[in-house]
Amino acid sequence: MELLLPHPSNSSPLTVLGYLERAASVYGDSPSLLHATTVRTWSETHSRCLRIASTLSSPSLGINRGQVVSVIGPNVPSVYELQFAVPMSGAILNNINPRLDANALSVLLRHSETKLVFVDHHSSSLVLEAVSFLPKNEKPRLVLLQDDVDMTPLSSDVEFLDTYEGVMERGDETFKWVRPSSEWNPMVLNYTSGTTSSPKGVVLSHRAVFMSTINSLLDWSMPNRPVYLWTLPMFHANGWSYTWATAAVGATNICIRRVDAKTIYESIDKHHVTHIKEVETVLYTNPVVKEAAVVAKPDKMWGETPCAFVSLKCLDGSVSEREIREFCKAKLPKYMVPRNVVFQEELPKTSTGKIQKFVLRQMAKSLP
User: Fold this and answer.
1) 153-167 pLDDT, tens per residue?
2) How far is 351 from 62, CA to CA, in rounded Å?
3) How far apart, in whole angstroms, are the C-alpha atoms of residue 16 and residue 209?
4) Can you give the residue ranges of the AMP-dependent synthetase/ligase domain (predicted)?
5) pLDDT for 261
6) Between 42-56 and 77-88, two packed helices, what is the crossing angle to 10 degrees?
């Protein structure tokens, strides 16, 4: 029986990074990432991640195993690729919320001892201001993310080491990615402000990320090759681990820079999205709901939040806003649960019976 005990020939550390390698083999020609005019396959994504990882660990950048590399950006292909590429180099990945102010950002960069930051071009001035607050010997190097096709080339006087594609071009696609020596090795560092506004860092091991990813796959019953629309920010707990889960099932990741109702509905229709449940579908499964429509309500912190307008089958006042929200909480991710539920006897419609969402959007804007 001693021969059955764990040893290198029969046991390897749990890590989600192997999902990308498998995706390149099993789903190689299937689409992995779609964004604007960008279309990539799983084989291409695997190659690009290896090239980034190789450059990170090369003498030119010199990121050592266990050092922190931060990423500041929205849901774009480069940010998705970095969820794999950074830990594949042996470094620890730290996604940072781009909505933070420069002071808060500088605190996180200093506390994490970040050595390199990948920065989306829309956040470049914010990051430059944050870095200016740090002592000279603690300033991380910066790499610019330029996922939009209309971006101009990086000028020589900008305080960035290189562009993401420049780092990519120097990389080696035959690079042997750094496998963890133990599944308890740290892989991800995430920060939260919590309830006290004092930043708190949480370190996740390869094992913790692996288990979280498996839970995410089971929770949503994701089949092979779903079409996943990224409305959940990747910087929120690594998109609740769906950044790695989508590789496990060979999903098509639809990346959108800005989350707004028009873009979401256009993407769902154009790409035949199968996964984020739409909130309205969930509301219609409630036996008390007659009609439902969900629109975006402006929000100072999040930009927009879901607002549900509902008409009920029975108008006796027995159903409360809280009950509708609790019903949604049991079936949807927390961020998709409507912040507001407005009851109406009848939802506004056109002469052909279509719900007039533009009217509801105007109503949502006037809500407190």
Assistant:
1) 554 446 899 999 999
2) 65
3) 7
4) 20-286
5) 65
6) 50
